[in-house]
From TrEMBL:
The protein's name: Exocyst complex component
A GO cellular component annotation in the UniProt record: membrane
Domain spans labelled Exocyst complex component EXOC6/Sec15 N-terminal: 51-220
Gene3D superfamilies attached to this UniProt entry: Dsl1p vesicle tethering complex, Tip20p subunit, domain D, Exocyst complex subunit Sec15 C-terminal domain, N-terminal subdomain
Classification lineage: Eukaryota, Viridiplantae, Streptophyta, Embryophyta, Tracheophyta
Domain Exocyst complex subunit EXOC6/Sec15 C-terminal stretches: 398-752
One GO biological process term: pollen tube growth
Superkingdom in the source lineage: Eukaryota
Main subcellular localisation: cytoplasm
């Protein structure tokens, strides 16, 4: 029983708690859905219904209590509510009346409103149509403008217009048909523009190739002008330095600045190229255009590098090289200004192709050339090409190296041409002293090569000691030096003076000296020619110093450098040796001529009964010839050469006299013949002394004389005419009076010295004691010489 009560109490308490929760939820206006769902899920809806009913009962009790509390107020409120209902009925009637009136009035307004709304709709549609039309008109205007740009070849503007249409208007074109047409036309327009631009670019390619030659020639012309200005400035500087050597005054350099003609600046139009590249960039195919440009320019270069075999290279080399120069000047400008159209590697590749071909062509053509002038012309133009392209950053070293390798070939050709000139000069030379009638002739032939002996201007007409061959040869040598310097300048070596000096030596030794020696040894020249050649060589020796100074001046070397010891040309020594050979040849010719006069064995009566008081006739001719010979030699030969010629001639005469006594044709001779020859010898000695003093040789060779050249003949004659010839065997007397005589020679001559019975000594030998003692002395000499031998 208690347990049941407890359970009931617990149940009531639990129900009371749940009712309180439910009442709270309802009072708060919360959603009871979750609670209902929970009860259903738990399978206990009856409990929830019981609780709800309990809550309802509680609320009804609360309402009853509330109504009881506020009953009077409720009655008043109901009364007021009934009044309100009456008022509401009245108001409803009024509203109904007013609504009817309003309906009557609003029907017309509604009709107007509908009409207004329709108008607003039409207006909106019209506005939209106008807007669409304006957009279409704007697009069509842009299309028309694009067409105008294309027709006027303003392709960039046309592309910008197309791009504007495509990006800003195409997707907003309200008319589908129009939009589709424009969409189809845009690629067509771009393709058309690309073709047109490519066509213009191709025309530009043809134009720029045809203009490359003029561009290159103009640029090379500028380089030539700049080089000429530099050379003129250096020449003025050298002259100023040379003047400063001879004067102590101050001197200053003056720089001449020449204004550059603006019209001569290189001008060529790259606008079509820029436009084509920019348009292709706008089209998004710039890489394709780069490849197209590079490919076509390489093809043009390959074509430009081909030389024509129909014309000689010497006639086409300027066009060939100028074309290449213009080509690479254009490429340099494209590289610098075209915004990435060309890369430096591509330009370098093209230049390597060109430099390889040019070096190959030049080496081949140089090997074919047979003219130094042509060789030099090509070389000069190549160096100008190198100087021009070096300004644009191209490496021209291989070109210069080709020229340096052609140096020997050029000088071989130059030497060959100079050899022909010198051979012709020698062949056409009259070997007569050159006569100059006015000062200009003297300046051109003497002063121009420092050949003068005096610093003052001589009186005219002036007779030079050399023939026309000397100034002509000097002109050839000077021209050779100029040609050599011209070739070697602007080459690999900046200091090429030693190279020029080597080639000048080669010219003077292998060409000039050899030609002179060939002339000397030809056997076709006479004494006067040999003498003139000897004089010419002496002058050419002196000219070697001028050649050296001239080469140094052209090479830009200070004059003091070539004035140092051991700085002279080797050719100067060689020419001196050749001069000695010329002396020998001259002496041989003189001796040959003297031999024609001195036929002593035939012209002298060796057993004459009388003494020739005036000498032999042949000796008079010899003296006349010697006088002519020395007079001529005095005019053209230097003093040492004059001394050699006179000494050699007189020594040969002396040898001839001695040889006549030794000749097999002279079997015997007597004293009369000896005395006649003694008279001849006296005439010669007198002539020798007179000429030695009159020529001025006595002042130079104070310890010498021409008489000494006759010493052997004089000692022999003195011995034969001596009263005691046996004294020859006395060493002291022999050394003093007969030092030039040989024992064997004296023995042979003395064996022939016999007086015939009908001779003077023979007829008087029995009556003249003096002659008898002399004969005895001679016999003693013969015996002693025989014993000695």
């Amino acid at each position: 029983m208690d347990a049941k009560q407890k359970r009931r109490a617990a149940t009531e308490n639990g129900d009371a708690g749940e009712d309180l929760v439910l009442a709270t939820l309802i009072g708060n206006g919360d959603d009871l859905g979750p609670l209902v769902r929970h009860a259903l899920e738990m399978g206990r809806p009856e409990g929830l219904l019981h609780q709800l009913k309990t809550v309802v009962k509680k609320k009804e009790v609360e309402i009853e209590e509330l109504c009881k509390t506020h009953y009077e107020e409720f009655i008043l409120a109901v009364d007021e509510l009934r009044g309100v209902l009456v008022d509401a009925e009245e108001l409803k009637g009024e509203l109904s009346s007013d609504n009817f009136k309003l309906q009557e009035v609003g029907s017309a307004l509604l009709i107007k409103l509908e009409e207004l709304l329709e108008s607003f709709s039409i207006k909106k549609n019209v506005t939209e149509a106008i807007k669409m039309s304006k957009r279409c008109v704007l697009v069509l205007d842009l299309c028309a403008k694009c067409n105008n740009h294309i027709s006027e070849s303003q392709f960039y503007s046309a592309l910008k217009t197309v791009d504007l249409i495509e990006k800003n208007y195409l997707h907003t074109i309200p008319v589908k048909a129009l939009r589709m047409v424009i969409e189809k036309r845009i690629p067509v327009i771009k393709l058309h523009i690309e073709k047109k631009v490519c066509s213009q670019f191709n025309e530009w390619l043809v134009h720029i190739r045809s203009s490359a030659k003029n561009i290159g020639q103009t640029a090379i012309g500028h380089a030539a002008s700049a080089r000429q200005r530099d050379e003129e400035m250096l020449e003025r500087q050298r002259k100023a330095e040379e003047q400063s050597v001879f004067s102590l005054g101050d001197f200053a350099y003056m720089l001449d600045v020449e204004a550059i003609d603006e019209g001569s600046v290189l001008k060529f139009d790259l606008t079509p190229l820029y436009r084509a590249y920019h348009i292709h960039t706008c089209l998004g195919v710039q890489e394709q255009f780069r490849e197209y440009y590079y490919k076509n320019r390489v093809l043009q270069l390959s074509s430009d590098l081909q030389i024509s075999s129909a014309q000689p290279f010497v006639e086409t080399y300027q066009t060939f090289l100028a074309q290449i120069a213009g080509y690479f000047i254009v490429e340099d400008c494209v590289l610098r200004t075209a915004g990435g159209l060309l890369s430096a590697d591509q330009v370098e590749t093209m230049w390597e192709i060109a430099i390889a071909k040019m070096t190959s062509v030049l080496e081949e053509q140089f090997s074919y050339m047979d003219s130094a002038t042509h060789h030099l012309l090509v070389k000069d133009y190549v160096t100008l090409l190198g100087s021009t392209l070096r300004q644009y950053g191209y490496e021209v070293g291989p070109l210069v190296e080709v020229l340096d390798r052609g140096r020997d070939k050029y000088h071989e050709l130059l030497l060959k041409e100079c050899r022909l000139q010198i051979v012709n000069i020698l062949a056409n030379d009259t070997y007569e002293q050159m006569v100059m009638k006015k000062d200009t002739d003297y300046e051109n032939n003497v002063l121009a090569y420092n050949l003068q002996n005096l610093d003052i201007m001589p009186a005219f007409p002036y007779i030079a000691p050399f023939s026309s061959m000397v100034p002509d040869a000097c002109r050839t040598v000077r021209s050779f030096i100029k040609g050599s310097v011209d070739y070697l300048s602007h080459g690999v070596h900046s200091n090429f003076y030693d190279v020029v000096k080597k080639y000048v030596d080669k010219l003077l030794i292998d060409v000039l000296n050899e030609a002179i020696l060939n002339t000397i040894s030809s056997g076709t020249i006479g004494v006067s020619q040999a003498m003139q050649i000897t004089a010419n060589i002496s002058v050419l020796e002196r000219a070697c110093d001028f050649f050296l100074r001239h080469a140094a001046r052209l090479c830009g070397i200070p004059a003091r450098t070539v004035e140092r010891p051991h700085a002279s040309l080797t050719a100067k020594v060689v020419l001196k040796t050749s001069r000695d050979e010329a002396y020998i040849s001259l002496l041989n010719l003189v001796n040959t001529k003297l031999n024609e006069f001195m036929t002593l064995t035939e012209s002298i009566n060796w057993t004459s009964e009388e003494i020739a008081q005036n000498g032999n006739e042949n000796m008079n001719e010899v003296i006349i010839y010697l006088d002519t010979l020395l007079s001529t030699a005095q005019q053209i030969l230097p003093m040492d050469a004059l001394f050699k010629v006179g000494s050699g001639a007189l020594e040969h005469i002396s040898n001839s006299i001695v040889a006549a006594f030794l000749s097999d044709n002279v079997k015997r001779f007597n004293a009369n013949a000896v005395m006649g020859i003694n008279n001849d010898l006296k005439m010669l000695e007198s002539f020798a002394d007179e000429r030695f003093h009159s020529t001025g040789l006595s002042e130079i060779y104070k310890d010498g004389s021409f008489r000494r050249c006759l010493i052997e003949a004089r000692q022999l004659i003195n011995l034969l005419l001596s009263s005691q010839p046996e004294n020859f065997m006395n060493p002291v007397i022999r050394q003093k009076n007969y030092s030039t005589l040989d024992y064997k020679m004296v023995a042979n001559i003395c064996d022939k010295f016999k007086d015939s019975p009908d001779g003077i000594f023979g007829s008087l030998s029995s009556r003249n004691t003096k002659q008898s003692s002399r004969k005895k002395s001679l016999d003693v000499l013969k015996k002693r010489l025989k014993d000695f031998n």
